[in-house]
Every structure is written in structure tokens, then in C-alpha cells.
Amino acid sequence: MGTLYRLPDLGEGISRASIVNWYVREGEHIEPETPMLAVLTDKATVDIPAPCGGIVRRIFAAPEQVVAVGSILVDIGAADQANEARFEETVRFASHNEGEYAGLLSSFPPPPPPPSSVQPLSFMPPKGTHQRIPLSGARRAAAEHLTFAQRIPSVTVVEEADLTTLDRIQGASGVGYIPFLIQAAIASFGETPLANAVFDEGRNELLAYDDVHVGVAVQTNDALLVPVLADAQTFTLDQLEERLVSLATEAHERRLKPADLAGATFTVTFAGHGGGLLATPLLNAPQVAILALNRPTRRPAVVDDELTVRNMAYLALTFDHRALDGRAAGKFLRDVRDRLSDPLRAISAGEFR
């Protein structure tokens, strides 16, 4: 009796994946739990192990093909089952706790992906040499996600932070901007808790969280990924820096797991010194707010009624107006600005630690 192996439920709401590469060939013998293929989901590249040992009798999905959860990927059978017509269909589901696979029997087809609420426009390309580049994996998911974000009634507010003193502290500590940005946001949630929340579209409810799970935007060659620092309120600045470096490395090397990109309640983004002077971020729905630190530059500023040169940077907060009003969003952003502009006070208060 052979095994028809279907694309497993990879969790985190993933309904489809793109085949990246097969590690096995038809006619080849494989051992149980050895890596069989790699798939690119909406969130990350995932290696899928063989559900059992045997001969790879047929591969049903080619590289770069997009397949839905439950679609047949491969037929695995014993060496003497080349003409066996009866199959045991095994659907394998990912364990959220250990990342392993457990077998379940099923003959039901997978549910179709939810239809898009946006109708595509017909398009006639202009004459001339061109190539069609299909969006796949993370880039396709980002395109769909951003399209959804655009329909949310969102507003952006902007403040300017003085990072001159913070730069001196960074030089002594070796900690980058993002850990300070995260801790400034966490401290500011104390007076604006609704900024650390997600909006439940289905029930038209706001879910405000006590724990802070921060998504941090990382630009890779494939797409913009947002790995998540779970329970960020428990981290010190040094621990945040270490974890951020690790997540960024895994993102660039395509080693992030789907669980690494799920569950954020708030997002921060910093394009670095190669970013723009002022850019307004799009919401990372269903979160209700995203905070951007723009490129710091030395420019004239008035300090104690005197004109001087300081290291200044614009902060931009985009928020879901269904969850926050302008007064609350503005206060939250000013609180973040004040903590970044006066880090010695934040250190004294235990907000930067």
C-alpha cells in the first residue's frame, strides 16, 4: 500500500505554498523524516520531511508551482509496489510546539483559498521589450497584505526626535536604534494601551494586549519580512539587540519559520541610513499601529532658545482610526519622541534598561 503525501497544514493561516526545490527524485529511496522538499510560504521557506520510508514513485508538483494545502505532492511506496493501485492518503499537520509532523488519515480535499475582495483590472501592456515576473511566496503575500491594508481607514502623524544624546549612549553600549525604539514604545503603551492591539475584522472588536509582541520590518532580497519578538517587554536592550541581529540573519538566509513571523501586536520599522528623510509606513494589519524611525540627519534645531546643530530624525506613526483617535495617537508618538530625545531620563526611570 502506497502513500499519497499532501501539502500539510503549516499553521499560522497559511493556505498555499510555492515549491522551491525537491531534495529527492522519482525512483529514489528515502528514509522517514529526512528532508524531502522545500516550500516557500507566505511567511518563510520551510523544509518538509518525508512522512515515511520507501521509493519516490511520482512527484506531482514542480518547482515554482503554487499548491494549496491538501494538494498531492508525492507518491511514496515500497519497492515492490510499482503497480499497486490502492493508496493510503496521509495528510500531515505541523505541530506548533515542536515543529514536528504527526500523521492523520483524510480523504477530504482542502478548502479553497478565500476569494479576493479586490477585482483585478484588465491590462494591455504597452509595446516594447518586456518580461513578466510573477509574484510568488513572500512577495506575493506582501502584495496581497498591502492591498488589504490600503482599505483600512488609517492616518499618519509625525514628530521630530533629537537623537544627539542617544547617539552618545549608543556609542558606549553598542546597541542600535531599534532596541531603544522598542523600549520607548513599550513604556508609552502605559498611557496609550490601545496602541498595542489588533483589530478583529470578523467581529468588529479591538483586542488590546498586556504583553508586547513586536514585529520588526527586515528588507531582504525576496521581500519585506516582519519577524516577531515575542514578549518584548521582558527583554533588556542588550537582549533585544542580540535577538534582532539573529532574526535579521535568519531572514536574509531564508531560515525563518512561519511561527517567527506570526503573532505581532505592534510593528516598528527603521530603514537605516539608506532610508528616506520622511516616509509614512503602511499598517501591518490586523495591528492597529506601526511606528517608523526615519533617517537621522544633522540639521539646525532650536534648543533652549538657541540655534544649534543636532542629530534629528522624524518619527511617523500610522494608526487605524477605528481603534485610535488623533489625540491618543499623537500623545503616544510624543511620548516615544520624548523618551528618545531624553534617554537619560528614560534610563533613570527604568524605561531603558
Automatic annotation (TrEMBL):
Its cofactor is (R)-lipoate. The keyword Lipid metabolism does not apply. Its EC number is 2.3.1.-. It comes from the Bacteria. Keywords: Acyltransferase, Lipoyl, Transferase. Residues 2-77 form the Lipoyl-binding domain. The keyword Acyltransferase applies. Forms a 24-polypeptide structural core with octahedral symmetry. Belongs to the 2-oxoacid dehydrogenase family. This is Dihydrolipoamide acetyltransferase component of pyruvate dehydrogenase complex. It comes from Pendulispora brunnea.
